[in-house]
Amino acid sequence: MIKTFFFTSLxxxxxxxxxxxxxxxxxxxxxxxxxxxxxxxxxxxxxxxSKWNTKxxxxxxxxxxxxxxxxxxxxxxxxxDKHFARDxxxxxxxxxxxxxxxxxxxxxxxxxxxxxxxINLATEVRPxxxxxxxxxxxxxxxxxxxNNKQSFENFKKSARNIIHxxxxxxxxxxxxxxxxxxxx
Length: 184
Ligand SMILES: C=C(O[C@@H]1C=C(C(=O)O)C=C[C@H]1O)C(=O)O
Prior knowledge:
Elements: H1 2-54, H2 61-78, H3 82-110, H4 121-145, H5 152-162, H6 169-176
Helix pairs in contact: 1-3, 1-4, 1-5, 2-3, 2-4, 3-6
The structure holds ligand ISJ.
Domain Chorismate mutase: 12-104
GO molecular function, one term: chorismate mutase activity
EC number: 5.4.99.5
């Protein structure tokens, strides 16, 4: 009886210690990834403004291909699944383009004149996006390595908490979709 009690308590204690040590580490990984995804989305209004002024199309497949090719090469060097990396970045592009489209539709309705001062896409805006790429890849690698006990549903909840409310649920869903297959 005493022996059973002792072993049950020991098992309970080990479980408590294990969850205290393990869980925050994984949550922290997801938090950093989601914060970076949010930062990337926060650049979209500046991209939208610049394209509104210059009337450039929202979609730029050549620029996307350049980023994706470099992402694949970096992923391979890091031992990160290049298909996962590619899908993830394509999803970030789609989420960002959704934000840009929503803003252009709003400005269309409001007959928004060109913004002043003009923000230069190539020299001021895109470098911010490029600076986030290697940081996102490092966090993706952590997600790939984690033996995920955490469900996609939990990740989705964290995503909604961390990604700012100016980005609607649809934008969040688009951005997190490729993570689904990596969190059981
Ligand atoms: C952000 C831009 O708009 C779109 C989204 C991209 C992105 O999220 O990196 C890249 C190219 C465009 O299709 C851009 O043109 O730089």
